[in-house]
Amino acid sequence: MMLSRDGVSGLVCLAISVILLTQTFGLPPAAIVPIGPAFYPRVVLSILMLLSVILIALDVRAMRTAAASAAAPAAGPPPNYRLVLATFIEFGLYILLLPPLGFRIATFLFVLSLQVTLEWPRSTKHWVLAVLVAAATSLICFLIFQDYLSVLLPRGTWSNM
Amino acid sequence: MGTVLHLQYLVPLLVGTIAGVIGGALPGVTITMTVIVVLPFTFGLDPLQGLAAMIGVYVGGSAGGSITASLIGIPGTPSAVATTFDGFPMTKKGEAGRSVWVGVWSAFIGGALGGLCLIELTGPFASLALAFGPWEFFSLFVFALSMVAGLVGRSVTKGLLSGAIGLTVTIVGPDPILGVQRFTMGIHPLEGGFDFLPVLIGIFAFAQLMPDVEQLNAYDPTKAAAATKLSLKVSHLSVFWDILCRPFILLWCTFIGIVIGVLPAIGGSAANIMAYDQARNSPSGRRNSAPVSPKASWRRNPPIAPMSLGH
Q1: Which of A56, B202, B237, B310 is deepest in the core (most CB within 10 A)?
Q2: pTM higher than 0.90 for the full model?
Q3: Which residues from chain B sit within 8 angstroms of residue A37, using beta carbons?
Q4: In this predicted complex, what is the ipTM?
Q5: Is B310 exposed, middle or buried (0-12, 13-18, 19+ CB in 10 A)?
């Protein structure tokens, strides 16, 4: 039986809580006081695990009820989960590439890839526009934060930019 | 009062307020950062002028955060989080002007009342704040967490799960008592834990962006442009009346903001959520939360969240 979004969210939260809960057993116990650094995380993660299980159970029950009553599926276009996943992957790559490439190059590549992913440019003019927007975003953010606000932005270890 | 009402102090106050509104409106640029940016410009002013500018920045920033919270659903400052709950849905319904101006006027009235209280009650409140100990802070944190129960909406499980996820995020990083690193997995940037502001912006920005990305296939630019023509024009008298005709909510939320604001290390981020919860659960708040009928006029039901900015 396919789970709905609630069930999938519950599964993800359950997995996270189980993984982190097993990691709490690797934390050192406190020498002087009875409550160590693992106590509070175990309480919170146990609550997270319990609520995840409840959410999954409620979702399974709701899906069974919906299947039994043969409820009509909601009208509307199907959600584009691939695009959401691609966006998340691009965010992750941006974070990973920020230290080696530096802010300016990484931001340029990120904004460009996001524009291309969300709407593939249909002509040379659109490509030029996408590149200009990416370059302008990167440069303007750099100038405002580095030069005007004196916030140091990361320089790339590979590019030194 | 006689000292302040001179052009030499009103001009820095105005400039500081404008800078504060701009800084507060930009997600990620906090009021503190805006104060730091404006500070070098005050070195050439006399102390009262500099102080007027800084106060203008602070007050302007508090109101500025509600602008982006209302218009794009991303709070400019942590104290504008509650404004996104009602303010942004109002913008989506075409009431952008009313949403923004209720927030701004509420901030003005709340700030004025807060200023009066500051003048008269600083001493007693300061004594009360200094008397707060670990037990009182713990009680306050439990009370703040219990606000989650008031904000869960239709699904209690999902609401509580959201709260648990929030608590899980705070676990990453050093243990506050012994300094033991928890769940950093050897990743150096995680050794300081997660900062509140990036998490806040990430949660709200992603929550707004990802549903739009999901439905990108169904996006019709012509329909979207026609449906969401943004106009900030509004009758200020009607906005003012909307606020003043609910004096209990306004005064109670302002009182909550004053009391919570006095306490060290709590601040507007907790105060606005508490005030929103109180306003929503008040008799007029419950009446206004659900439409009476499809023809119910929302213009008679002012938003709760922008008014909680009165803290």
Answers
A1: B310
A2: no
A3: 175, 177-178, 180, 182
A4: 0.79
A5: buried
